Every structure is written in C-alpha cells, then in structure tokens.
Amino acid sequence: MTKRITLSIAAAGLLIGGSLQAQSAEDAYKNLISTSLFMANNLYLQTGWYDLDGRGGDDAETSNANFVGSYYFGDYGDSWRPFVIGGFGFSRITQDHTQTVGGFDGDVEFDSTYLKAGGGINYNPTSEISLSLGASGLWLNSDADYSARNGTGSNAAIAKYLESDSDSAIYDLFASGTYHTTLDNGYKPYFTVTAHYQSLDFDHGVSGENGFSGDFEAGVYTAELTRWMDLPVRAHFFAAATFLSNDLSDVVGFDSAYSAGTSLLWKIGPMIPIFDGAFKDTELAFNLQGTAGDSGLSGWKVSVSLNIAKFWAAPLRHRGL
After folding, report:
1. Would you say residue 237 lies in a domain?
2. The pLDDT of residue 210 is above 70
3. CA nearest to 233, candidates 263, 261, 189, 260
4. 3 state DSSP class of 40
5. What is the pLDDT at residue 154?
6. pLDDT-wise least confident of 124-138, 229-243, 293-307
7. How many domains does the chain have?
C-alpha cells in the first residue's frame, strides 16, 4: 500500500504598509487576524516575506513557521485514494501606529499558535486526470499585546480586542481537478484548479465571514537534470494565481495574488535506511517563490519540504499523485 507524507517547514514574513485612517478596535482585530488565518491556510501564501498596503496603521509585519503534512492511502494508479491533512504552526503579526476611533494610537502584536486538520478523497478516473474533494480546519490561538503611543492610552474597546487573548479559525471546503501527463522527454506538465468555500470565525463576539477563493496552478516537473552524491536531482517550475471573493478580500486585504516559483528536488530515499525500499523515492525539495498582486502585494518566500512516497511515479506538489 502506498503511503505519502508531505512535510513542509518554512518561515514567513508579511510587511503591510498603508495610510493612517482610523478604524474601530474591532475592525483592527478582525483585519489582522483575517490576514493571519488566510495566509496560514493558503498553499501559495502561507510562507514568505511580503509587502501589502495596510489598513488603519503604519507598517505591519507577520512571520509564520508551519509544519504541514498530507498522507495518501493506496497505490499510485488506484482509482480512489483517501487522504488526511495535519499540521501545526506559529504566527506573529504586528502593526505600528494602529489608529483607532477616539484618537488612540498604539502598536499591536498577536503571537499565535495554530493547528490544522482535515481530509478527503482523491479520485483518478484516468491515468492523466485527478479529482479531489476535502475539508479542513485551522484553529488559531493568539496572545495579544498593545502598547500605547504618544500618551494616548487605551480604552475598553482596545482592551477587549487588542489586549486580550483570542481564539479564531478558518474552515475550508475545497474541490480540485488536475490534468497531468508525461512527455517523451520525461517532463511532466500539469494544470490544477482548486475552488474553496471558506468560513472565518472570530472571538470576542465578532461576526464571522464567509466567501469563496480559487487557486489556479500550471507547472512542469523536469526529467533528471543531474546527480548529487550519485542521487538524481530534478526541478519543478510553476505559476499560480489566487483570487478572493469580496467578502473575504474586505477583511484579508487583497483581491488577488500571482505567484511563480521553482524547486530543486533531490531524491534522498536510497541514502536513508528507513526510507530505502518502502520509501525509496523520497525527495528533499528546496523551494523559492515570488508573489505580486493588487493592494500593493509583492514579495517572496523560501521553504524546504520533505516528500515521502512509495511508487511516486508522477508526483504533483501536495496533490498525492
């Protein structure tokens, strides 16, 4: 039976700069937490260093370290392959000169830990088409800190939303379809579309948000390019686009993001005894990605992922193929 685990270890940073337009303390909380939730959950935006126009504050920065895993049952080529998703991570988002109604000015910081869990079913009607349906939840626990500036102090609203610990979550129902093939030269091009219906829940009695988002990705895995320590190295190139509905973009802060990246994949399975045989096709991937979008979104990310698989004949990133 084929078992696949994909582990991703990365660090992220987000820089948000914008105008100093006053907002309610509740909106400041909701906007910052929404950004953290969506980016921690999204495949293309969960790690990196980005610039994005801010709302109601000076500069905001977020850093994120996540450990994400997917486990696929069955053999490559099976028509039906159940999968489970699990992960945890750490996130920090800060914003200086957060302007709130009443003339208050302060620095906000949310230090968070999160857990992610889910699963679904992968259906392969042909050798070149893969369909998936699944659901996941990501639960974020945040410690809040607020430091007043210019002697403006605090008030009850700030104490409630920006100085109190909170629990929030994003729930994701998703469906995806992938077309992939192998060319005569050994290259493996593919195209993937993923649709999400997402629900954001907040603490402190703040109303939740629901909306749609979509991811589109096209890419190619090369044939073996070289060998290192007598083990094969190949490459992966991709371009992706993410779009958010108005309900989500209003709180997350942008409508669209466009990413392009590359990876080097080194087949390390044979050199690790526990992986040799059952997991002989395990690859260590080094990933680099650049991103641009509306609302001044731009940036890049780096990550390292460990892809553990058996009979990994035509792997697609995080797809279980």
Report:
1. yes
2. yes
3. 263
4. helix
5. 84
6. 293-307
7. 1
